[in-house]
């Protein structure tokens, strides 16, 4: 065997492994991207939702409307109950704001508040405002396939990039192979402990797409409480100007 042949025999397997690894990583990211775009819209979305916060001794119900545009903009308006009606939350790039009409006060939400429960629920402010991007802020690894509710799913691990300012230390996602639906998501803290699990239910056609219409969040350390969100209606890729996502609009929107 010539010296060049020996060299190629040594190099080529390594190159092949690198190419396969890169392809798998890219596939995992594309799977997550497709799932995210299906739920959020390729360009924008407008959704009407209800939320039930269940606790051992009480239950609260909320209604709200949510506007999103890409990964940079989000607006959420609480429409019920009466005592919280009119509260508005805005994400514009990396800045987050809350407007409370009862006290006429605008509050800028610091990054430290992103892990806190939104409106006292098990969804975080980060979940509600979509501060972090599951596509751009994480490194994705396809671990294999598993069944969730009789659905064949990709199992993907998400680890935050070094520069990403995110809430979670790791995310595990189960995404269906046929429709790219996020059937199950596990969120882990920075120490690697499971913090909460999100489960999708009631797959139906909504907004012209096959989607889960209900999501349930269960805290790992409080299995007797949960938060359930129902999508009442949703529109995708509706034209929304960037100027809509402003502090002035937060005070006007109804």
Automatic annotation (TrEMBL):
Indicate the secretion signal residues.
1-25
Gene3D superfamilies assigned to the protein according to its UniProt record, in alphabetical order: Lipoprotein localisation LolA/LolB/LppX (2.50.20.10)
Q: Which CDD domains match?
A: LolA_like
Entry keywords, A to Z: Lipoprotein, Signal
* Residues of the Uncharacterized protein TP-0789 domain: 71-252
Q: What is this protein called?
A: Outer membrane lipoprotein-sorting protein
